[in-house]
Amino acid sequence: MHLLTSTQLSREELLLLFEQAKTLQESKTIPQTMTGKILGTIFLEPSTRTRLSFETAMLRLGGQIISIPNAESSSLNKGETLEDTGRMISSFADIIAIRTPEKGQVAKFSTHSSVPVINAGDGTGEHPTQHLLDFYTIWKNRGTLDGLTLGLMGDNKNSRVLRGMAKMATVFDIKLIFISPDELQPDEEVLSYLKKKGREYHQVTNIGEVIDQLDVLEINRVRHEYFEDKQRALEIGKQFILNTETVRKGKAELIVLDPLPRINTVQTDVDDLPQAKYFEAVENGVFVRMALMNQLMQR
Amino acid sequence: MHLLTSTQLSREELLLLFEQAKTLQESKTIPQTMTGKILGTIFLEPSTRTRLSFETAMLRLGGQIISIPNAESSSLNKGETLEDTGRMISSFADIIAIRTPEKGQVAKFSTHSSVPVINAGDGTGEHPTQHLLDFYTIWKNRGTLDGLTLGLMGDNKNSRVLRGMAKMATVFDIKLIFISPDELQPDEEVLSYLKKKGREYHQVTNIGEVIDQLDVLEINRVRHEYFEDKQRALEIGKQFILNTETVRKGKAELIVLDPLPRINTVQTDVDDLPQAKYFEAVENGVFVRMALMNQLMQR
Amino acid sequence: MHLLTSTQLSREELLLLFEQAKTLQESKTIPQTMTGKILGTIFLEPSTRTRLSFETAMLRLGGQIISIPNAESSSLNKGETLEDTGRMISSFADIIAIRTPEKGQVAKFSTHSSVPVINAGDGTGEHPTQHLLDFYTIWKNRGTLDGLTLGLMGDNKNSRVLRGMAKMATVFDIKLIFISPDELQPDEEVLSYLKKKGREYHQVTNIGEVIDQLDVLEINRVRHEYFEDKQRALEIGKQFILNTETVRKGKAELIVLDPLPRINTVQTDVDDLPQAKYFEAVENGVFVRMALMNQLMQR
């Protein structure tokens, strides 16, 4: 089975995954379930965090790595189709994590793969394991994912992290609040998905209006590449800066998340507050990816 | 011992290698002959298939990898000679697979290496392990390499795959047919080698003339970098497109091979025919490289 | 504990390290002290020797590797601070070796790292493990580091190798001779450090004046990037060419070292002389890095 989208896992599957991640994280010695297995990490767009997190997870489970760490090291430069590349790499690796520059490319790559493929980000498309580690971090800290209010601040229109998190949230009893200027509010695709799933959401333009209602605040930086007017991107970006003052207006048990790197999002003085969970989420990510690979390899 | 050229292995050595590859491929658990050993993969020209195939082979034998995945990650940029680089890397690795942009560079690299060096492609020079996996695939499917007719279609003048395959074929009782326009027929170096070895060959310009005689058809894409006239390269390239219709005119047991990536060579609808063996060859390549490394490390 | 500078290790710590490196180098089987551990190699400037040496050391100790082999494979491109990157990677790896383009960047990176960080070169700053392998090579060959005369030839003003070696030498009874034209003699920072430590040094412009006094000669190439006048860099560079004739004027037990790559430094005909120890130093480097990582992980 592949993991391609934020919507393909059920509530039960997610909770089982989180239980298994927690068991791994709490175990003194990690069961070496991947001995003799190889993970292929194919990153046609630069990444540090996601690639190294997957590789660390595989190594700590006793497995090994083959890697294309960037597009320059790949014969995709020679004009090979993603379908052929996927089929080829699935002759080598037992499981594959791949990032591509454009939406839909991971699905193409997976078409002829004989082994599980994990979408590690396909342009403006999906990045489901990011949501896994964010929701796992919330679940670990709060003990549940139901009855919470989740604020999503940033470019809700284009950010694959914010879009996908909104969709994955629908399997839980989570109230969503989108925090963006009007032009960066989610598009119809996301909103109609929420309506179909019967989930409550609100849209505001300013964090100040809702900070005291939030159990979780996820922030994602503005990506300048989506703006023709770079000056406008810069101005908008500054609206998403989060400082200590704002955090302190929120609930004591507020969880602040950011997929990192943070550029004009969370200020470094927030790091020392108990609400800051983004570095803990990086650590958690290794365990949730371990659990995911264990599951995908068993099916 | 190094593996540098397509002509250095005898008939007996090749057949022994294929037997050993087959034993590995059929074994339930791969003997961990490389435990504690390190393969260095030095790719000064981009590659996916060859590098990952070598690395997979080493990991599945229980060994480990150090790698220069592309020229940018190397201090060859600082002006170090290949001789010094080879000597240095042989202090680290127990065996080395290297690809270089220019002919003769792998031989230079191997001069002062204290460990076995495998030529994984040196520009227009040689790429012997590609032939190993192609001939192994034929041998596995037909049970022999004698009494066969092998068609080589593409740029027989410049392609290291086609040139080397023609030469390696001479240790078996193989009839060669070169399929190219006149300007891309093999040069005197290759033809005089075949004459010296007493092997029969024919030269035709069109696959249609000979498709019914072939036991094996190897196709390699035209490389545009060898043509000043890029438009001409494009036109010629199209002559080497292989579709289902042509394959069906051939023998039922025809084996179609392509080193991949395929660009204007085998059409995707051929993939589903039993004659298509190019993806099987990718899988086979891992085992023939395992057998090769086992052999080189024992001498 | 981190290893950031050439001055942080005491005489006793250095000698203990060399003893441990020698034990590892002489042992028939390397104790697998790093089983289950991961080294992160982060090279934001290209390197072959240093990165592969660290990786080889870790693999031979039974550990594993995660790597950013060049800046292109990193999300530092996205504008992440070195402090955040360091904190993040220390969630994955158990120890980190990092090279950066600019002085001071490794120290920044280490600020929030929860695991040991080794400076593998920070621009014009420091590269302490290079000195470790050079002094270890001298110690192995001579049995002591006291009572020796060490010549440092090249760009003594800018070279991190020469500057750091001069400083590290002060913990031993070593007489220093700087061999450079006036404009490339060490700056006040280095000279005042030597005075403070009470160590004797001399400054000459020509190797011929002092070759017969030297027990060790370390040469480092001129880096053209430090010269506005590239022609001048070329002229100066030629002054540091070392040939057989000059070596033969020195003591029979002279040890010639060069951090490599050698560009206008040691001529290849010197390689066959017993004085040439630069390739032995590369081999030694793996063992001294093993010993270092063992020590840093124990504290």
Give the gist of this structure.
Chain A is α/β, with parallel strands linked by helices.
| Helix/sheet category of chain A | alpha/beta
Count of helical regions of chain A: 10
Number of strands of chain A: 9
Largest interface: A-B, 26 and 25 residues
Structure description:
The structure is a homotrimer of 299-residue chains. Chain A has helices spanning 11-26, 49-60, 82-92, 105-110, 128-142, 160-169, 188-196, 230-238, 244-249, 278-298; strands at 38-43, 64-68, 95-100, 117-122, 148-153, 174-179, 201-204, 216-219, 255-257. In chain A, 53% of the residues are buried. Chain A is built from 10 helices and 9 strands. In chain A, the strands form 2 sheets. In chain A, strands 7-6-5-8-9 form a 5-stranded parallel beta sheet, with helices on one face. In chain A, strands 2-1-3-4 form a 4-stranded parallel beta sheet, with helices on both faces. At the A-B interface, strand 2 and helix 3 of A face helix 2 and helix 11 of B.
Helices and strands in order, then pairings?
Three copies of one chain form a homotrimer.
Chain A: H1 11-26, E1 38-43, H2 49-60, E2 64-68, H3 82-92, E3 95-100, H4 105-110, E4 117-122, H5 128-142, E5 148-153, H6 160-169, E6 174-179, H7 188-196, E7 201-204, E8 216-219, H8 230-238, H9 244-249, E9 255-257, H10 278-298
Parallel strand pairs in A: 1-2, 1-3, 3-4, 5-6, 5-8, 6-7, 8-9
